[in-house]
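Field reference: "sequence" (input) and "structure" (output). Example, GntP family gluconate:H+ symporter:
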Amino acid sequence: MNNQAGFSADVIGLGPILLVLLLLCIIFIVYATAKWKLHPFLSIISSTYILALGTNLIGKMKGVEGGPIIKDIGATITGGFGGIVTSIGLVIIFGTIIGKILEKTGAAVKMAEVVLRLLGDRHPAIAMSIIGWIVSIPVFCDSGYVILSSLKKSLAKRSGVNVVTLSVALSTGLYATHTLVPPTPGPIAAATNLGIGPDGLFWVILIGLVVSIPVALAGHIWARKVADKLPSTLEESTETFEEYKKRFGKLPSAWAAFGPIVVPIILLAIGSFANFPVGVNEAGDKVLLTSGFTNTVLTFLGAPVNALFIGVLLAMFTLLPKRDEENLTKLMGEGLLDSAIIIMITGAGGALGGVIKATPIADYVKSLINGNAAFVGVGALILAFLIAAVLKTAQGSSTTSLVVTSTIMMPLLPSLGLDAMAGTVPIGQMLTVMAIGCGAMVVSHVNDSYFWVVTQFSGMKLNTAYRAQTMATLVQGIVGIIVVAILGVIFL
């Protein structure tokens, strides 16, 4: 595999052709996924081979000495695929299993009950936004919406608030954390693709929570000011919230419901702070906040794979009513099946990234933007947002948009000024994850499965759904990138 740092000026001169080839590969991913209905995994892998073979063909045709020839395409692709799966595979599996247990045991409903108990009936739309914002941290947004749909209907009946208002408040609350906050697989995959190691995952969660708050608030305001005037064909609920809860049997306690989410986040925080540098010794080595056995233990507990596995154990022993074949085999199998799809798409993105790194595209882009401040720092964050938004709007999947965009951006980070550090915190990479996540919201429409979940479970006609859900996701994405850009001005 070529090392991009060693490319000659003549080879870098082939950059325009290779950049066009990469753009054609991205168009192929969009077209194959949206028009041919090809699974994103196959469309990304196919485009990876097109890029690799096309790069070699261009190198042969141009005859440039030391040209961009990928000597072993198979090894490059499998190396990129295996590298990303090795670093993130178990994290995605554990996070998905936690979400599945929360979904099936009524823990998500318990979270909703806690929020409703705190807010009462006075602010039903705010309650739905907050419930969605919390539940979608571990649970996929479409599953979360289905679980909480009956709650939304019951609350609409009890409060007299338009069901479309509560529908959009719930859907946008779910959407905000779905694309921005790990352990949801999309943001984890983007963070890993962009080179954020285990020590940085807590900071991604932290900044994701910060950015997602104004994003969820924007969705809430849209629900109150615009969706409130829109009609729904949904029949009025005939059951109360108390009757709805009985579907799940005895609900878990609040501590048990929140524990599998909160405990791993606390452990990630402890691991990050345990290795926080507090000075330099006489030999010039960093002095960490903790040392010796204490550091070893806290680092072990704070590693993402270990922290999330502890979350899985908590979910199993505190939430599952019975630890029998139904729960320990079937339920876990459902979680593994859900995670496998995300892992395969993420691995395909890693393979594409491996091929991109083996070409001089990154060096060419660096020479192209050299001295042009418009494409560095905040400008680069907006570029990442736009790429993700185009991919999301064209092919419908937020996760695919996050994976592909982060793959494209990774080799360009130094050139775009997005490799900045704030001490030991990879602030540039973190903001790039946020910019891509905001782009992956824009927009949810007819090619997005989540759009249809929201539409069908809310009784919205198509034109109503465009005004309520599609426009709300556009507003969320725009508000999100504005927040990220402001953070970029401060930290980059």
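Residues 325-357 form the longest helix (33 residues).
Confidence is low (pLDDT under 50) at residues 1-5.
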